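Reading a protein record of the kind used here takes only a little practice. The record below shows the convention in full:
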Amino acid sequence: MKKYIVLLLFLLSFSLSIHAASINVRILTTKVIKSFIFSPIIGTYDVYGDGVLLANSEVPGIFQMTIDNDSIILKTFEKTIGKYVTLKMISKQTDGTFKIKSVAPEGKVRTYEDNLSVSLVADKKQFMLVNKVEIEKYIGGVVESESGTRASLEYYKLQSILCRTYLLAHITRHTPEGFQVCDDVHCQAYLSRTTDADVKKGVAETKGLVVVDNDLNLITAAFHSNCGGQTVASQDVWSMSTSYLKSVKDTFCIHKTHAKWKRNIPLEDWRAYLQLKHKYPVDDSLKLNDATSFSQPNGRSIYFIDNELKIPLKTIRADFQLKSTYFSIDQQGESIYFTGRGYGHGVGLCQEGAMHMAEMKKSYKEILNFYYQNVHLVDLSALSYFMQE
């Protein structure tokens, strides 16, 4: 009974998000957009300037927006329509789809679903573009952006659940800025809508499913490209201990695309780095020998040469932009060679390992429980039942 009450409270805590069914996502966040083109590709759109209906996309269908001091100039190829503080492109159909192309700076065409809000950021020097999109459509776009279109349906089911869980756990991350999540890896990559049939099916067949821990809290649904044969416990990367993000031996990813990598740097650069940043005694020949012949034979380590200095491997990875912390070091002449395994932080789901497990006909639940311990699936669609009681 106690667990039932806790579950009810958990579901109710997300009632507003689920009931609203849409999410406000800032798009093109990695670019300073000063001019762009908007064009519907499915359905028609009403265009509102400062809350007033201006035109619909049937006459005409392509708009360009540029910045003029603290205003937005809206124009077509034929004429300037006017200046506004905010613009909204509202789909008149449930399948409304539009494309955006950044003009300044030049960018690729991206496609999105549902609606678009246009305003300026606080300094008035760039656009803030916010896609108001149904949550499940957004999840589809994230799944494709994060994992591509070459995986199996079973994998897409799992990735959909994890992306949905991550969204709901961070749904207010950017609320003070006027949107809820961004489209970059700071939240989750969301580069466009999905058109892949299996991705759409994976999202639809897991609609409303999220992952919780034993206390019925949404988990940190971490994932990465390839763990190199062993995942990493959360506390070893983020100083955050959890009951479910533990280190797991993974043989499913070791022959995949991102399982191995190499990198070399000049020996002098390595010596200078250790001495200047970490006060490592490189003038000591024995110490220098240790620093140029490092390995991790018994699984992943946390520190480089585990002594009183305790140099975190994650710091070396970040400073040299290495693919992972799972590497060995050898000196060859006047060069240092990094020989590494895996790609990414190594915490949680190993995507290439999970894809291989799915190819081996493992179910998404089996894969989930392999990479995350002591977790449970919760169907948030049950919320409507609880609310009626």
